[in-house]
Design brief:
alpha+beta; about 40% strand; about 110 residues; five-stranded mixed β-sheet; 2 helices; about 30% helix; single chain; Archaeosine Trna-guanine Transglycosylase, Chain: A, domain 4
Length: about 110
Amino acid sequence: MTTHELKTWPRFFHEVDTNQKGFEVRKDDRGGFKPWDYLVLREWDPEKKRYTGHACVRVVGYVMHGGQFGLSEGYVVMQIREPSLGQMRDVLGSLLGRAELEIQSDG
């Protein structure tokens, strides 16, 4: 499983955060999104060009790759859902591990 941190514009962030939107359409430029990957969606304000401080985590279910059904090559549609408590622990551990590695490489 891979944890992907992604910028998400406010309107779409709110729809995912309130479970009104259960999918993500993304450019597949990260070496492939896969089922069971984690998405850390961070709300991004495109006008101010900064993060708002809001974030949510989702687990990838089904992944449909581009080149079919009108979806352009190089894009994916991912079914997403809220993670279980155990999955949240995994994501937090992954993010904390990255932060620790960044701190160690600075010093």
